[in-house]
Amino acid sequence: MSESDHSTTRIPKGFRPEPFAYHQEIELDIETLTNMGQGLGRHDDWVIMVRFALPGERVRVRIYRNEKNFSEADLVEVLSPSPHRIEPACLVFGQCGGCQYQHFSYETQLEWKARQVKELLWHMARIETDVLPAIPSPRQYAYRSKLTPHFPRPKTDNVVKIGFLRAGSRSSYVEIERCPLVSEPMNERLTELREDIHQSQAKKPYKKGATLLIREHLDGVSSDPKEIIREQVGDVVFSFPAGEFFQNNPSILEAFTSYVGEKASSGGARNLVDAYCGSGLFCLTSASRFEQAVGIEVSEFSIEHASKNAEANGLSNARFVLGDAASIFDEIDFKGGETSVIIDPPRKGSNEEFLSQLIAFAPSKVVYVSCNPATQIRDLRVLIDGGYAIEEVQPFDLFPQTKHLECVVTLSLETASE
């Protein structure tokens, strides 16, 4: 792009002009992938991150942001493609922000996800340990059981676009007519909802945007977030409101929960504590391995459903308590040395207060499940400094075609094994 082209391009307010001009085009080699799913290359030792570029590729890119230590660019052309680049299944891949890896062979997606966990362990916490190969999802497409498409506030033309945020945007939406990550019945429901909304819009225009719900379960497809639905994982049937959180790749959940339960019970612990238990996924699928299983949750609503699920499945050794963040283990009446603790916190990870209480409780084993390896690794450093050692790191690919993964880290109290 010439200097005259730069001068006629509308430059966003606040754009940092160094080291590249806005929309300047350059060529570079992509060396690696970030854990955000971006290709990373260097131009004169300056880091440039490029969405949808793959390691090993020579690409032409267009700069759109300069940060203090790196720049971000759009992919303009692949000059030399990776041998692992494939044709994406979705017509709007590259526009929709939901997927990052549909153009990447699945086997290679798995390899990179495990590699990124190992690299993060070292770079963030100086932890050097083996990371097992990522467990693949039995389904690479049509695996999601929950979809939440949105539409923004209609503009003057009153056209309602139903879909997801555009890649790299916080306000622009991409119309989604069919998503390959969900089943055909869910896509049919999406079509029905779109028709209903367009008809409603014609009669009484919407004045604001909305988020829709499409959830597949044992008994069909629901769109009412308050409807009580059922999901089965192994021998356990869970009932919960359709709008509540529940892991949404049923094809891998039995293997996923079985692994967590196996690791929690592998040291011979008699008791289980499932912190952040939600509706009881890990507590109830692991309860048969223990004498007692207790789920702790700060949401009274979740505790109510978890208790009902325990009773409905005849799991009399499982109970659930409402836990206060300041005294999370006060309701536990057995010793830490005879106990394993499963933690599956939200994306932000655990807080310092909780980790201090966990270390003080001193369970013989901790199984840490996380959808965000970065915050998980931050917390691992605290647990290691508190006397725990990593036994095993096992990624699970619950989210094929995306940058996301679940990672299970098993730790044991070093004094317990001496």
Q: Which range does the strand content fall in?
A: 25-35%
| Shape descriptor | globular
CATH topology description of the domain at 106-139 and 249-417: Rossmann fold
Q: Return the string of H and E elements.
A: HEEEEEHEEEEHEEEEEHEHEHEEHEHEEH
Radius of gyration, taken over Cα atoms and rounded to an integer in Å: 24 Å
Calculate the mean pLDDT score and round it: 92
Number of helical stretches of at least 4 residues: 9
CATH superfamily of the domain at 106-139 and 249-417: Vaccinia Virus protein VP39
Distance between the termini: 65 Å
CATH top level class name of the domain at 106-139 and 249-417: Alpha Beta
In the sheet with the most strands, the strands line up as: 17-16-15-18-19-21-20
- SS-based class: alpha+beta
Specify the helix fraction band.
25-40%
Question: How many strands?
Answer: 21
Poorly predicted regions: 1-7
Describe the sheet with the most strands: 7 strands, mixed
CATH architectural grouping of the domain at 106-139 and 249-417: 3-Layer(aba) Sandwich
